[in-house]
Amino acid sequence: MNKPNRLPGGKPQGAREVALGVLHGVETRGAYSGLELNQALQASGLSRPDAALATELVYGTIQRLNTIDDELSRRVKGWPGKVEPWVRSLLRLSYYQLRWLTRVPAHAAVDEAVRIAKKRGHAGIGGLVNGVLRGLLRDGFARELPTGLTAAKRISLEQSHPEWLVTRWIAEYGEETAERICEANNTPPHASARANRMKATREEIVAALRSEGAEASPSALSADGVVAEKAGNLVHTALYKEGRMTVQDESSMLVAAIADPKPGMRVLDCCAAPGGKSTHLAERMNDEGTLVANDVHPHKEALVRQQADRLGLSCVRTMAADALELPAKLGGQSFDVVLLDAPCSGLGVIRRKPEIKWNKTPDDIASLAALQEKLLDASGFLVKPGGTLVYSTCTIAKEENEQAVRTFLSRHPEFELDASWPPEVLETLRESGYLPDGFSGMLQLLPHMFGSDGFFIARMRRQSA
Ligand SMILES: C[S@@+](CC[C@H](N)C(=O)[O-])C[C@H]1O[C@@H](n2cnc3c(N)ncnc32)[C@H](O)[C@@H]1O
């Protein structure tokens, strides 16, 4: 008998089978979609357009899961529990393709799904897939939602998000913004990269990417950033391999700009792996001074080291410790700038990791917020009098962000919020209308604002002794 977490029928061939293998891994092994997809694409040898199709099928299917399952549960007996996991994944991705990827002719999509079903299962499964998909095509997809739904239920079904999450966002941000967050979560992210200012200007990076056929332009959000369409995977470019740029979301690039470390300073990054922000801080320090990059997982030290080496940075020192123990481990040392880029629920990166919205629970948010408050206490301890503490997360849950910061400040009167952010950041926010009146030094970026990840950053200052 086939092991439940192994896709039957051998190595996936072609974009749809690669996507099927990835969805099957996410479903049966709880694999991360991005990691699973990268590995599968590398092993597949697919052309760039086919890799793009497999990517769209994987992310789209996970993004639209509750809408797809709602419909399939009406058509397939015992859905989902009594249907083999790989058949579930095949039906879901075929549904996604028929409804939202209409550039592929519908009959071709159905024939291909039936071929895969027969190849990996048997004629009976082929018959089931054929019947379900042809039934969908016959009846059409435009089903009116019942009237009288609450706003949360309506948005949840129209935008394929769990209702508890939509309810939360309506309470925190209002109905209109909650809907825009959900829409943005269903929009594929553009690729973005950060110029290593020690080796290249961003104008040079833009020009080099354009000469390779990409549609590249300067980021509207970060002074170091470049956004690129039709560029393929930027990690495979010479620009990346030569250390002239780093692949990073535009919102993350704001952290080093806001921390604003100067050459010669001592800087600590408490939760550093894989090193995106540590290396950015070091680049902005012109590789002068000391950057201590710590992470709890010893095996991740090598990831940070690799990035520092690739970028030609020698001021980065790596270490592995629980950040809660750093005050004891670093014995009396203190730092001009401390960054706590905390582990979080990731609700700001749903467009990149759509499984987050189905896997996270309100309890996860509460327990993460409790951990973040402890991590803030430990990090604050290591800031010099007059020094800076920056707290960031890639989530949009208030408990993990503004509330965690307020709790920290209430316990530590020696700290205060610091709104004196560098003009390069404040002007961008002001011009786009996202600098709130009475700006306090905390920023919550939502994913629809700049098309970046949802991200939170607070800058605090420790009083001089
Ligand atoms: C948001 S990620 C950091 C991303 C990183 N700053 C970057 O820009 O590349 C959070 C990191 O915190 C680490 N982590 C989780 N709990 C930790 C703890 N108690 N102490 C130190 N690091 C921790 C995780 O291993 C993970 O690498």
TrEMBL record:
Keywords: Cytoplasm, Methyltransferase, RNA-binding, rRNA processing, S-adenosyl-L-methionine, Transferase
Hydrolase found in the keyword field: no
SAM-dependent MTase RsmB/NOP-type domain residues: 181-463
GO biological process, one term: methylation
Subcellular location as annotated: Cytoplasm
UniProt-listed Pfam families: Methyltr_RsmB-F, NusB, RsmF-B_ferredox
Annotated positions binding S-adenosyl-L-methionine: 271-277, 295, 322, 341
Record-linked InterPro entries: MeTrfase_RsmB-F_NOP2_cat, MeTrfase_RsmB-F_NOP2_dom, NusB-like_sf, NusB_RsmB_TIM44, RCMT, rRNA_ssu_MeTfrase_B, RsmB-like_ferredoxin, SAM-dependent_MTases_sf
Purpose: Specifically methylates the cytosine at position 967 (m5C967) of 16S rRNA.
Name recorded for this polypeptide: 16S rRNA (cytosine(967)-C(5))-methyltransferase
Organism, scientific name: Cohnella suwonensis
